[in-house]
Specification:
The structure holds two protein chains of two kinds.
Chain A: H1 6-37, H2 39-50, E1 51-56, E2 63-64, E3 70-82, H3 90-101, H4 105-112, E4 119-125, H5 129-138, E5 145-154, H6 162-165, E6 167-168, E7 174-175, H7 177-181, H8 183-187, E8 191-196, E9 211-213, E10 220-223, H9 227-244, E11 248-255, E12 260-267, H10 286-289, H11 299-308, E13 317-320, E14 323-326, E15 329-332, E16 340-343, H12 344-349, H13 353-363, H14 365-374, H15 403-410, H16 419-430, E17 434-436, E18 441-445, E19 451-454, E20 458-461, H17 465-481, E21 495-505, E22 508-522, E23 529-536, H18 544-547, H19 549-563, H20 568-571
Parallel strand pairs in A: 2-10
Antiparallel strand pairs in A: 1-8, 2-3, 3-4, 3-5, 6-7, 8-9, 10-18, 11-12, 11-23, 13-16, 14-15, 17-20, 18-19, 21-22, 22-23
Chain B: H1 2-26, H2 31-89, H3 91-100, E1 141-143, H4 148-155, H5 159-167
Classes of the chains: A alpha+beta, B mainly alpha.
Amino acid sequence: MSALTSNQFSRRTYVIFAILLAGALMIAVRLGYWQVMRHDDLNQVAVGLRERTITEYARRGDILTSDGILLATDIYDYEVAAHPNLISNPKEQAQALAPVLNISQTELTEKLSSKASTVMLTLSAPVNTGKELTDLRNAGKIGAIDFVAKPNRRYPGGSLAAHIIGFTNASRVGAYGIEQYYDEILRGRDGQIRAESDALGDETLPFDLPQGSPALDGSTLVLTLNSAIQNIAERELQNGIEASGAKSGQLLILEPRTGKILALASYPAPDVNNFSTTKLDAFADPVVSLPYEPGSVFKVVTLSTGLDAGKISPGIILNDPGSVIIGGRTIYNSDRAAHGNVDLTTAMQLSLNVIASKIALSTGAKTFYQYLHDFGFGSLSGVDLAGEIPGTVKNPGDGIWYESDLGTNSFGQGVAVTPLQMANAIATIANGGNLMRPYIVDRIIHPDGTVETRSPRIIRRVLKAETAKTVSAILEHSIAKESTNKAVLTGYSIVGKTGTAQIPVPGGYDPKWTIASFGGFFPADNPQYVILVKIDRPTSSPWGSIVASPVFRSVAQQLAQLTGLPPDSIRGAGK
Amino acid sequence: MFARLQDHLRYQYRKLKKQLRARWQTMPRFGSARIALVALGAFILVALVYLAQASNAAAIARELRVKQLQIQEIQRENAQLRYEIAALAAPSAIEQRARKLGLGPAKRVVYAEMPWIQPSPNELMPAFLPQTQIVPAPETFNTASDTTLQQLLSVLGFGSLADRIRAQ
């Protein structure tokens, strides 16, 4: 091999250098392609491999009664899933998991040995599962097992106030009642947490603190409801319905001075803890969403309008010939009898349709319907419950109103009102003529500790205070005069009116069924509680005085005992 | 005299310069390596401090995350216990147990007159619900805490102005 000349050496050096340079340039170009051109998507893949995003579910706010009884809350269940393609020891893992998940070892081994990338092991493992699985993972006994805590809505009171609360569906959206009305406030906001993970997807690498937005829990609602009063209302309503052979009914208790709803019972009550197996219709609260023709309870309103408008005086004597013709339609008393000259107390005591019609006639249609609207009939009460409907009140001149309607409306026929509207109208009389906005959420407690308090609000003055007092006195005396009225409460003066309403059907009224009701308040001298009892389609008797009045008395009696309200004689009422 | 002193100083200066130059030339020639060593040492020191801090931060982060998860676990268990307590404290559950014990609603209530006690009318009315002020105002929610403006005014010493806003 001859020695290389200086020129040859130099040339070969240049060639090798050029080849190396070309190679280096190619590598540089390729690197540039991967590092610059493909940077974003490759970075995403890399981050995806080493990071995982965990959804941190927000806790939905609690719902409490005013006396601190929990009506709705979130508890946690664990969803446990496995990635069998990453598991090399399915038998050993199944052995460790079986007692924790309460699933047979054979079933688990089968699932963990499958070829699927992900298999669900359970959707609802109890709350202590999380801790036990963490311990197993830290001990190296399990891997490639995901477990996520998911909040689950529960109602510890069972059916207590079920209609009021509503429920939260599988998507954690409130449906019906308070859950729907206050969904935004209760819901909170789910969080997204990004954390470094190992090859099995377990969040174990300690390189950095998890990043992302943490969950923001929902606010807690404190209701105006009192659990003991609500329980009395529900129990007595059910007793009344069962005793009368009815199928359904409602009972409301309001605090007339403020408009607070102390109890609101509807029977039958839905099973809120198993909403998926319950018909959705069962959750609609008839108290706000099912209007009815109130019947004679409505005479309280007619009496108030006549007195307040100055068209009749408290001492007026009216003649009852047994029937009256209004707008071409003959209106009779329920007993089809003529009672001659009667005062207002007797008219209310005997619940005379003819006298009620005469009062409405003397009040005049325009004034009468103006009062009806002032009482809140035909419009939303503004209560903070989902699904409220305004009911129906015809008006002169709207095309569907006839003169005869003035007569029938005066005793609660041909008007559709919700039980809440009816109770609130009675509360207006109890409250000296002021119509209050009924409300059920008293306070909202936010996660940061701030508290929003809801104030009672006067919607409008409907009656003069003097009128309210006069109406109360007339009704009190009419009840006291009825020796057979089963609403009479020993020791306490009560104010109220029975109602036996026919049920409209296409082409007229149902010949068989009625709605029996009693609406009133007590004690008469200082009204504390307005109670409306409504029982649908009783079979034992159609009359409100027989079916609904005893329920009123029973509830009032227990309310007095519960709250320590002394009888009139002890309080010196009327002195 | 002055000229002799000047000559002496000049001589001493030249002598010192010559000595320094001679010493510099006799010194070993590994200055670059020494600098490199010093730089390497400094780099290692800085790296150690950084690694120690990073390791410490990672350990604290891990500990924090573990504590966070433990808190979450406890909160979940707490929610479960609250639910169980609430289920047992529900009026229907209590009533059921009370009835098993032979208890029930009072059939008769007797009030004893005690003329030596003269309660006020308010004391004779139910007092289990807090009394509330009624307002004929538009529907609003009142926030219990002060607004940021009120807090700021109070901090700046304009307490009376903050009170006036609060009163409104």
